[in-house]
Amino acid sequence: MAHGEVLEFEEYVRTRQEALLRSARRLVPDPIDAQDLLQTALVRTYGRWDGIADKSLADAYLRRVMINTRTEWWRARKLEEVPTEQLPDASVEDGTEQRADRALLMDILKVLAPKQRSVVVLRHWEQMSTEETAAALGMSAGTVKSTLHRALARLRQELESRDLDAHALERAEVQREHGERGQERCAA
Fold first, then answer.
1. pLDDT value at 125 more than 90
2. At 21, is the pLDDT very low, low, confident or very high (cuts 50, 70, 90)?
3. Distance between CA 155 and CA 105 in Å, rounded?
4. What whole-number distance in Å separates Cα of residue 7 and Cα of residue 119?
5. Closest Cα to residue 61, out of 51, 75, 71?
6. What percent of the chain has pLDDT over 70?
7. Are 63 and 26 in contact (CB under 8 A)?
């Protein structure tokens, strides 16, 4: 690789490292594994940097390399259980609430149309600008803004309806308990 290409790659890594690490963290649960995944993807991309004609597509190329690498790692994992005499201590902060929030978010994203879902993911998870999102999806910046506005309104509506459903269920359970107690009193 020519010296100019090396400098260009180094500059690319310096400017895009944080965004690429966020993408890696979404692919693997462990932050250390995410760093390893990004580093492996960067090494693989470095060897092919001069073959990427349109450097504006480098992020997409690198994300694809990360996805392929993660898939290779998953296929190569060992599925052996190691017996121990004692179970490890349970962690107080196990992230259950965070996983529940993430599962809820993934579930309510399903109510969005694919175009809306793409805009929400690129703008909020990938933290792309309106212009970057528009370019990635082949639409105008105004369309991205209006689509995002409608998508977020739909997500709020879905969250509120689920919250109302949960409260209604709780009220019904409380009323049923009070009704059963009232009937027991009348029978006595």
1. no
2. very high
3. 9
4. 33
5. 51
6. 80
7. no
Q: What is the mean pLDDT of residues 59-64?
A: 88
Contact indicator for 151, 112 with CB cutoff of 8 Å: yes
Place of tokens 């369309």: 143
CA distance 148 to 78: 42
Residue type present at position 131 = E
Q: How confident is the model at residue 154 (pLDDT cuts 50, 70, 90)?
A: very high
What pLDDT shows up at residue 180? Answer: 52
Distance separating alpha carbons of residues 15 and 20, to the nearest angstrom: 10
Report whether 20 contacts 61 (CB < 8 A): no
Token pair listed for 128 = 């792309």
- Yes or no: say if 107 and 92 are a contact pair by the CB < 8 Å rule: no
Contacts of 152 (CB under 8 A, 6+ apart): 120
Structure tokens at 91: 């962690």
Structure tokens at 122: 């690129």
Are the C-beta atoms of residues 105 and 155 closer than 8 Å to each other? no
Mean pLDDT of the chain: 82
35/21 Cα distance (integer angstroms):
7
Name residue, tokens 């809306």.
Answer: 116
Whole-model pTM over 0.85: no
Residue 73, Cα to own-chain centre: how many angstroms?
19
